[in-house]
Amino acid sequence: MIRGSYRRFAGALLLALTLPAVAMAADPLTDAQSLVSAARRTLGRFQADPEMAWFRDHVGDALAVLIVPRRIRAGFIFGGNGGVGVLLAKDP
Question: Which helix (H) or strand (E) covers residue 74, if one does?
Fold first, then answer.
């Protein structure tokens, strides 16, 4: 009985982790545009936050900045995480 409960829980967890990825794959262009918009909002919040002075002072020196506005973390016995983001890199 306990093993069956763990199997159902593991199946539900797997389903919950894969559904967002399936839903995001519906329209690639719209998804890309919404991802870039979310990344812009995230970067704007970082720049506006008074506690992120170090970030504002050093972001210009960075070769690249990875912005991941959509990050999923899950875990019970086994853990996992994933996300979708935007990488901004300078052209040398």
Answer: strand 64-75
Spell out the residues 6+ positions from residue 82 whose beta carbon is closer than 8 angstroms to its own.
17, 21, 71, 72
Token pair in block for residue 35? 């991802």
How many secondary structure helices (H) and strands (E) does the chain include?
A: 3, 2
Q: Quick check: 74 and 18 in contact, CB under 8 A? A: no
- At 30-48, the pLDDT tens digits run 888 888 898 899 888 888 9
Backbone angles phi, psi at 19, to 5 degrees: -60, -45
At residue 66, what are phi and psi to the nearest 5 degrees?
-105, 120
pTM over 0.90: no
